[in-house]
Write a sequence for this structure.
């Protein structure tokens, strides 16, 4: 089994090959290539307008690249080019093997239905048909993301910002995805809530052996969560490497500027 | 001033052809909502403009028409639509379910089992079963196309979480021919089992929303549910006060302002038929009497 696991992680889960996207004359993303391995957390950092979100949308198949390709190794071990996937397959992937955590929980949650149904939706979408089991799984997940199970029947609009974000994470992880995309998951939360969320994310990522691509402008988030960092500027990746290496010993002037603009504690 | 002002059954022949094409497509793809160019009808939206257009398109001079509203043949809506076709098409009308070849209905399926030479036309206010969960039409169409119906169960889940059972009592979602999830129009869920494997053709017309859908005869129609909360048709547990029927869908009728009420069959034709055959309920024998002074 251990051997099989190493074999598994020998092959990349997701490979991006010279991805580019331009909107008219504006090149939002240029020639981005990397490979992501199972269980690996990759942070994409950079200032607003550097092409982070465009890249994330291309990687998650929501935006068709102008050039280049993304391939993803499915659960059966076969790597598939995302652009050749049919819409049904892509949406199925999104409900099962992938997760997507939005910055604004209102985009990722159904605000009018209860927390339990929010978590259970993916299960029902893949054919779970037993109310009791769906509910048990939902309350189990609420517990794992530190939400009081007594609030399972409350709608997320009655939740605080931090709780909403944790609920969104539970909703995404319930089908045990292998890859989760996160777009500024801690944006808009106050510092203590951020810390708690990061702590939770870090333990879940380790526990579930999740591969994560996290887009953030907050270097502290990158430092806490990620194994590797990609620094973007003007649509290009200007520096990439192990997190501590890039953040403690930045090579590029722009990265140096980014790192030095964090206020010392 | 003696030429008839209207074409047979009100609509012009081109419009009928258009509607018939939509109906044929709907029959070919059971449960799929076919868009059609709904016309203005001489009645307000919500009064059955969709049903009336479907009826007008399929009606022939030999047809016998029955119109019911909440099971009743003698409410305003039922009478006015029946008269409308009596006037514009000159077809025979009836209140007897057995004799009718076309039955237009609002919110009920007759208690008497339908047979092969009948068409049941439903008036539909909101054809999209996913509408209240997913407001985007583009998204709901895509969900139908890909048969992504997890969301429908979210609604049922919410019901159980809130009320302890599936509290949806009407417009209860069904899956037609193991493919499309369909809104059976606001019929009580009591009627859902009648749609399954029904001998008659069932057509659904939504005038405002411009959609037609259909269930061909003998098609499998399954009400959605959970394994541990199976679908259960609901019926108030009482016999009909007029005909004593134990298995018909009942209307509650308030009889005074002191809490008095009676339960009677909502299908008036069925109830009258049973009374004519000699069945009695608890209130059917008592003629109305003005009561002087206190009672009870």
């Amino acid at each position: 089994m251990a051997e099989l696991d190493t074999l598994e992680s020998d092959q990349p889960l997701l490979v991006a090959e010279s991805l580019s996207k331009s909107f008219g004359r504006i090149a939002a993303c240029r020639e981005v290539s990397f490979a992501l391995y199972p269980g690996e957390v990759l942070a994409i950092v950079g200032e607003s307008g550097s092409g982070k979100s465009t890249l994330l949308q291309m990687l998650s198949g929501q935006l068709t690249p102008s050039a280049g390709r993304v391939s993803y190794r499915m659960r059966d071990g076969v790597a598939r080019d995302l652009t050749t996937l049919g819409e049904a397959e892509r949406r199925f992937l999104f409900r099962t093997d992938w997760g997507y955590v939005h910055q604004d929980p209102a985009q990722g949650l159904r605000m009018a239905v209860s927390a339990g149904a929010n978590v259970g939706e993916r299960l029902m979408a893949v054919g779970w048909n037993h109310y009791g089991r769906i509910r048990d799984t939902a309350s189990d997940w609420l517990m794992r993301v530190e939400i009081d199970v007594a609030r399972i029947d409350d709608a997320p609009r009655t939740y605080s910002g931090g709780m909403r974000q944790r609920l969104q994470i539970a909703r995404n992880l319930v089908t045990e995805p292998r890859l989760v995309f996160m777009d500024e998951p801690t944006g808009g939360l106050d510092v203590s809530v951020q810390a708690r969320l990061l702590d939770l994310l870090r333990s879940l990522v380790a526990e579930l052996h999740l591969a994560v691509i996290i887009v953030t402008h907050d270097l502290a988030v990158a430092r806490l969560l990620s194994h590797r960092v990609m620094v973007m500027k003007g649509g290009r990746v200007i520096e990439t490497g192990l997190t501590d290496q890039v953040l403690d010993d930045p090579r590029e002037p722009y990265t140096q500027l980014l790192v030095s603009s964090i206020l010392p504690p | 001033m003696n030429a008839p002002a209207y074409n047979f059954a009100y609509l012009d022949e081109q419009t009928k052809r258009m509607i018939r094409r939509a109906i044929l497509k709907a029959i070919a793809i059971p449960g799929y909502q076919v868009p059609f160019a709904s016309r203005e009808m001489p009645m307000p939206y919500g009064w059955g403009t969709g049903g009336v257009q479907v009826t007008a398109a399929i009606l022939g001079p030999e047809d016998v028409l029955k119109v019911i509203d909440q099971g009743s043949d003698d409410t305003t809506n039922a009478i006015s639509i029946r008269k409308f076709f009596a006037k514009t098409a000159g077809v025979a009308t009836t209140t007897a379910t057995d004799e009718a070849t076309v039955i237009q209905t609002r919110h009920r399926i007759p208690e008497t089992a339908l047979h092969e030479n009948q068409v049941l036309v439903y008036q539909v206010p909101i054809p999209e079963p996913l509408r209240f969960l997913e407001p985007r039409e583009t998204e709901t169409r895509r969900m139908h196309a890909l048969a992504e119906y997890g969301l429908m169960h979210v609604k049922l889940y919410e019901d159980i979480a809130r009320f302890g059972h599936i509290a949806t009592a009407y417009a209860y979602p069904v899956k037609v021919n193991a493919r499309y999830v369909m809104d059976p129009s606001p019929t009580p869920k009591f009627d859902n089992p009648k749609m399954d494997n029904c001998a008659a053709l069932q057509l659904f017309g939504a005038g405002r929303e411009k959609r037609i859908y259909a269930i061909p005869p003998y098609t499998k129609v399954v009400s959605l549910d959970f394994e541990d909360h199976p679908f259960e048709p609901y019926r108030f547990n009482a016999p009909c006060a007029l005909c004593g029927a134990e298995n018909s869908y009942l209307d509650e009728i308030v009889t005074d302002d002191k809490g008095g009420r009676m339960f009677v069959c909502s299908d008036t034709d069925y109830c009258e038929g049973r009374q004519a055959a000699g069945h009695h309920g608890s209130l059917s024998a008592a003629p109305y009497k003005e009561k002087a002074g206190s009672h009870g």
